[in-house]
Design goal:
The complex is a heterodimer of chains A (273) and B (287).
Chain A: H1 8-33, H2 36-41, H3 53-62, H4 64-94, H5 100-111, H6 117-130, H7 136-159, H8 165-172, H9 177-188, H10 190-206, H11 209-214, H12 223-229, H13 231-234, H14 238-272
Helix pairs in contact in A: 1-14, 3-14, 4-5, 4-7, 4-10, 5-7, 7-10, 8-9, 10-14
Chain B: H1 5-33, H2 50-55, H3 59-91, H4 97-105, H5 112-134, H6 150-174, H7 179-187, H8 192-203, H9 205-220, H10 224-229, H11 241-250, H12 255-286
Helix pairs in contact in B: 3-6, 3-9, 5-6, 6-9, 9-12, 11-12
Classes of the chains: A mainly alpha (273), B mainly alpha (287).
Chain lengths: 273, 287
């Protein structure tokens, strides 16, 4: 059959299109390893020797390991607590949708998806400083809370597709609601936990706006925020800047290379729901 | 089971309380401040609708809405056209499908801010250098420095980044279409274009709706791109609404004024999302 043949024109066209994606990344990598002199000769050529000095200088200047640690801590704690708490809230709602209160809660959380952060930004910043949450703890806390809107939406959809007979069997054996949730339901949520985990991870790791308005202390800044803060010092030395950008981007790129299939399917599931 | 239903309240109500305090209260606080002359510190008085009346006469505010909508509409259309095309390519019988799919998704995992910084450099050095060699004089200057063209630069970066996510979504939609349908259509003598209009597009209509609504909403909130690339300049030509709220609200002493701006912005986003969903869902049914 004709349709079994490889469609080479489209393959080649797509490969050409993918260069549009890869080219800026290529440029980032070669620029990060060059010296300003080399750059003035040719922007595109490979570096004639790998200047690791750009990286050590960038690490030193931006205190890279500190901000890497901050981003890492914020992301890990946000993902862990989002999975544990948001799924539990969604479970309570999903199993009680026939009650008016829980139905209200569902629509209450979900409708908050229509309230983008810039709209509440000004009062939130006042509030976080009032509560002493203008630090990393506050950042993690707000990610977990603001995640509720979207996560309840996808968790509830998923939990409602799990038959209740499993839980009823556990109840007959005398298990409590807590036990049922943690021992029976939570393990069944793995596929959707993966989706929520991946989306939350990408959000917490790459987000710029919330750290920008919440964090005031230089020692608690996350990776994107640090790139922003050092922008004025970078403009004089692009190689240094790109070394810093590359280091900030590479943890996520490495994770992606390892878990690419898993990440794409997780993101797709979250969006198709 | 009746006995245990109390536990459900303990599971859900703390979350409600926290969400109420940190999300709903700020919404109402914002509305309250919008009727005051609060600067972000110190005392304030209620001034009625004064902020709202001033908003509609403020050239800077109107310009920011103009820019944001122009940017959002153009980017939404471009992203949807390009990502649907790429998704259809990826859905065809091609070689290296998984690798190509992985490459096209890469921008979605990268920080928008840092991507913006990288493109900044492309626009400042790389494109002018190429343009000079090719003799295209109109591109030998950094387009981000040109008040008339800077928005195009931001569209390019926004589209480059957002196509990744929409492609994956369209691809998921296309994979739900059974190939037999196309085979039947081609037996009936339908060409490529006809089968796209009559089979592909109607069957992925729901994905089209999601993509249009999500893309539009995200682009209306554009912030990171602008901060990374132009900071609202040159002049105020690329000052998006969220950028203006941020700048005016925190450093411009316009806390109450920008709170009023946020209220209008919020109403607009809700109205547009609802209209889009209604309109596009109606079309889904019609097809």
């Amino acid at each position: 059959m004709e349709s079994k043949k490889v469609n080479w024109p489209i393959t080649i066209l797509l490969i050409l299109c993918s260069l549009v994606i890869l080219f800026p990344l290529y440029l980032t990598i070669v620029t990060a390893f060059k010296s300003p002199d080399e750059m003035s000769k040719s922007l595109l050529s490979l570096p004639n020797k790998l200047r690791w000095g750009n990286f050590t200088e960038a690490i030193h200047l931006t205190n890279f390991f500190q901000s890497f640690k901050n981003s890492f801590i914020v992301t890990i704690f946000t993902v862990a607590f989002t999975l544990l708490t948001n799924s539990m809230v969604a479970y309570a709602i999903a199993r009680n949708m026939h009650k008016r209160l829980f139905k209200f809660l569902y629509y209450y959380f979900v409708s908050a998806m229509f309230v983008p952060f810039p709209i509440i930004m000004l009062p939130v910043v006042k509030q976080t400083s009032l509560f002493g949450l203008n630090n990393m703890t506050g950042l993690i806390f707000l990610y977990i809370v603001y995640g509720l809107a979207f996560n309840i939406f996808i968790y509830v959809g998923y939990i409602r597709s799990i038959p209740q007979s499993l839980e009823e069997a556990a109840y007959v054996d005398g298990a409590s609601t807590w036990t049922v949730f943690w021992k029976v339901i939570f393990p069944l949520l793995s596929p959707i936990n993966a989706t929520v985990g991946i989306l939350t991870c990408l959000w917490a790791w790459n987000d710029f706006m919330l750290p920008l308005v919440i964090l005031s202390d230089r020692d608690s800044m996350t990776l994107p925020l640090v790139q922003y803060v050092f922008q004025s010092q970078f403009t004089t030395n692009y190689n240094l800047a790109f070394a810093s950008y590359l280091m900030a981007l590479s943890p996520m790129i490495l994770v992606y290379i390892v878990a690419q299939k898993w990440i794409i399917s997780g993101v797709t599931k979250g969006a198709v729901k | 089971m009746v006995k245990q239903s109390k536990v459900y309240y303990w599971m859900a109500l703390p979350a409600f309380l926290v969400f109420f305090i940190f999300h709903t209260v700020p919404v109402f606080q914002g509305m309250m401040y919008s009727f005051t002359n609060y600067k972000g510190y110190g005392d304030f008085n209620f001034v009625g609708l004064k902020n709202y009346i001033n908003l509609f006469q403020d050239q800077r505010i109107l310009a920011s809405y103009g820019f944001t909508f122009k940017f959002a509409i153009v980017s939404t259309l471009l992203v949807n056209i390009i990502s649907l095309a790429i998704a259809m390519g990826l859905n065809a019988k091609i070689k290296f499908r998984n690798t190509l799919r992985a490459v096209f998704f890469v921008p979605n995992i990268l920080s928008v801010l840092i991507v913006g910084f990288i493109f900044n450099y492309l626009f400042a050095f790389f494109i002018p250098q190429i343009a000079e060699k090719l003799g295209i004089t109109s591109l030998t200057q950094n387009i981000l420095g040109n008040p008339d063209l800077a928005w195009v630069g931001i569209v390019i970066v926004a589209v480059w980044q957002a196509v990744a996510f929409n492609t994956i979504l369209y691809l998921a939609g296309l994979q739900t279409i059974p190939t037999e349908l196309y085979e039947a259509a081609s037996l009936d003598g339908a060409g490529k274009w006809k089968s796209f209009i009559h089979i592909t597009f109607p069957l992925i209509a729901s994905f089209f709706t999601i993509n249009m609504v999500l893309a539009m909403k995200n682009f209306l909130m554009v912030f990171d791109h602008i901060i990374a690339m132009t900071n609202g300049g040159p002049g105020q030509s690329t000052e998006a609404i969220s950028v203006l709220i941020y700048k005016g609200g925190f450093s411009g002493g316009e806390f109450a004024y920008q709170a009023a701006n946020s209220v209008i912005y919020f109403i607009l986003i809700v109205v547009i999302s609802v209209l889009q969903i209604k309109f596009l869902q109606k079309r889904e049914v019609d097809m």
